[in-house]
Amino acid sequence: MRLGVYVINLDRSVERWNIICSRAAKHGIDIVRVSATDGRNLSQKEFRDVDWKGFARHGGRAILAGEYGCYRSHLRCLASFLESDFDAALVMEDDIDVSGDLLDRTTAILDVVPSADLVKLFNHRSHGFLGIAISDFGDEVGRCVHGPQGSAACYVITRRGAQIALPFLQIMSFPFDVALERGWHHGLNVMSVRENVVNLTSSSRISLIGKRADYNHVKFSGAKRLPTHLLRLAEYYRRIRYVLEI
Predict the structure, then answer these.
(1) pTM value surpassing 0.90
(2) Distances in Å between the alpha carbon of 246 and those of 23, 184, 186, 242?
(3) Domain limits for position 190
């Protein structure tokens, strides 16, 4: 399998790029840089393909500029992958700490779940994990009952997966990491690892999307959040059913 390695990086984040380049070169890993969309340099009038009402209903808040940029950056990365001749793409954000065994572990994971379209290799949460396979490196693969798991910092996606995801995710109705997990909606066979395959670097402490205060500032309150609570209950039910179908 030909595995391409893509790193999403803002033009202004030179130090992050230099660090991840150095780490990758140390391990003999060739990486392809994807220039990230800087949402903070755009006005909301410049945001394209956004389901504003849908995002507000499901998220219970407005969209952060950094979230929009993140979403568009990942779609750009998938488009770049589909223009290549790689069989699968390892997609990373630039605050991932590249390890020497990353490519071997990723390939081994795909080997034990050949039907997977996408496997998340880094998550913030893995509660209610149901494993179905263990790779030669000991990485357990499956799905999580509880979610969203959070983060799209590192995942591997097959060509078939990208061909389905790219057109389906053109309209932004969720943050990208949430949209990515919703296999019951877009039809991808999405899986995850029980334990993270990679770690974050110290630069991850400074979020390029938004701080907690930024999220709180755009968060709805009171009765405005009632539709969100109801929709999340429905999403939770769909997620459980999807996980049990594994």
Answers:
(1) yes
(2) 36, 11, 16, 7
(3) 3-244
Q: Is the dihedral of CA 24, 13, 206, 218 positive or negative?
A: negative
Question: Do β-strands 154-158 and 32-35 pair in parallel, antiparallel, or remain unpaired?
Answer: unpaired
| 163 CB neighbour count, 10 Å cutoff | 15
Which parts of 87-169 are beta strand (E)? 88-93, 96-97, 118-120, 129-134, 140-144, 154-158
Give, for all 246 residues of the chain, the pLDDT tens digit: 899 999 999 999 999 999 999 999 999 999 999 999 999 899 898 999 999 999 999 999 999 999 999 999 999 999 999 999 999 999 999 999 999 999 999 999 999 999 999 999 999 999 999 999 999 999 999 999 999 999 999 999 999 999 999 999 999 999 999 999 999 999 999 999 999 999 999 876 666 666 667 677 677 877 788 889 899 999 999 999 999 998
> What's the structural domain count of the chain?
1
145: CATH:
3.90.550
DSSP category for residue 212: H
